[in-house]
Amino acid sequence: MVGLTGTGNHMSPRDGRTPDERPAPVEKGSDMHLMIVDDHPLFREALASAVRLAFPAAAVEEADGIEAACATLSRLRSVDLTLLDLTMRGVNGFDGLIAIRTRFPRIPILVVSGLDDPRIVREALSHGASGFVPKAAGKAVLTRAITDVLNGSIFVPEGVGAQEGEAPRGGKPPIAQRIAELTPQQVRVLLMIRQGKLNKQIAHELGVGDSTVKAHVSEILRKLGVISRTQIVIETANLDYDHILSESSTN
Hints:
By secondary structure, the chain is α/β, with parallel strands linked by helices. Helix content is 43%, strand content 12%. The chain has helices spanning 41-54, 66-75, 95-103, 118-126, 139-150, 175-179, 184-194, 199-206, 210-224, 229-235, 241-248; strands at 8-10, 33-37, 59-63, 81-84, 109-113, 131-134, 155-157. Helix 8 (199-206) packs across helix 9. The longest helix is centred in the last third of the chain and has 15 residues, at 210-224. The model is unreliable at 1-7, 12-24 and 161-170 (pLDDT under 50). Keywords: DNA-binding, Phosphoprotein. Residues 175-240 form the HTH luxR-type domain.
């Protein structure tokens, strides 16, 4: 149950909305409309209670399966966030996540699951989840995750990114070694990607053209051995800004 300890990382936006379409920053007293999808009544009720305790003004819907969740989302256009369990009766793998994400692409999904293997977390994010909270996590982590996701960030628990000195699957060098291959300007772009900034924003801050930023992003993807901006922030999730800057300064 949502019982409680731990911290997490928040990363860049990936909910399909432009900055103007995203809601104002969420605070604890904010009105919000959430839906919890879990086929275990006791956990669903406990999670709903934890959400209401953290966000007293929140409206909370409950669904015991994907079909019921989709029906509720079709009926209630005001839902801001879906909290989804991955393992439910009649659901294979990530099918439930994919189904909701496909039908309602503008509603972010925060996975709350007992399956907290880092590979599962990464897979959930790759299928469009905006965050992941283990069921063993504490209320503080849940509150942080909901707040971050509603503010347009991606939330992952500590320990999901490739650790310094760890050789990731596929034979890639440690993330710190790959970051050391970036130029100083590429490092600046990387840091802005981690902050959730769009190419136009990065171009404005660096005083360069959009095409230059796109070229830098392509090189960052190539050098880090990843295929998306989301993977960039996941791979570097456990490295702080000072570490990244220090690695780049050795170039």
